[in-house]
Design goal:
By secondary structure, the protein is of the alpha+beta class. It has a single domain, classed as Sandwich (Jelly Rolls). It has 2 helices and 10 strands. The strands form 2 sheets. It has a 7-stranded antiparallel sheet, with helices on one face. It is globular, with a radius of gyration of 15 Å.
Length: 174
């Protein structure tokens, strides 16, 4: 269900630059609402959702190019990216990204220590936890967006925001 790619971008200056400028300094507008899937009515993180025309943001563009190389099906397209931030103690809710089988790419941005938690959990159709991935900076987690999933918040000993960039895909008409 989950595939993990560590050291995916392997450019600490690019990653830190994005985190500092777009998250800490607030150059991305975050709101408490779910913009990842319009069918979901309840919020599950502080989200900034950007349409594909805005993939030019540093780090996002690099991720977009590399994730496109992982797409195995010619009729699947990355159509949206969004950033999610989770403060300490704020767990995400269980949600899906699509109604059909298509990959979602979740990239871990924040500098991190294992003791801070922030795990990512994928559930089966009955909402039983099936796989867990630890949060680790510069890690790409690939999973099927039709399965329910959620993020856990940083523990109270972390002062950082758990920040991810997600790419959602869609099946193009054949």
């Amino acid at each position: 269900m989950i595939k993990i790619f560590d050291n995916f971008i392997n450019d600490p200056y690019l990653i830190t630059g994005f985190f500092d400028k777009y998250v800490i300094e607030g150059h991305l507008q975050f709101s408490f609402q779910n913009k990842g899937n319009e069918d979901e009515t309840h919020p599950h993180s502080f989200t900034s959702s950007i349409n594909e025309k805005d993939f030019i943001v540093p780090l996002v563009y690099d991720l977009y190019k590399k994730c496109n190389q992982l797409l195995l099906e010619p009729n699947i397209n990355i159509h949206r990216w969004h950033a999610n931030i989770y403060p300490s103690g704020f767990d995400g809710s269980i949600h899906t990204d699509s109604d059909y089988s298509t990959p979602t790419y979740l990239y871990c941005v924040s500098p991190w220590k294992a003791e801070w938690g922030g795990e990512f959990i994928v559930y089966d159709e009955n909402k039983e936890a099936k796989e867990v991935a630890s949060f680790k900076q510069d890690r790409l987690i690939v999973f099927d967006g039709k399965y329910p999933h959620r993020a856990t918040a940083p523990t109270r000993v972390s002062s950082l925001l758990r920040t991810t960039i997600a790419f959602q895909t869609e099946i193009l008409e054949k």
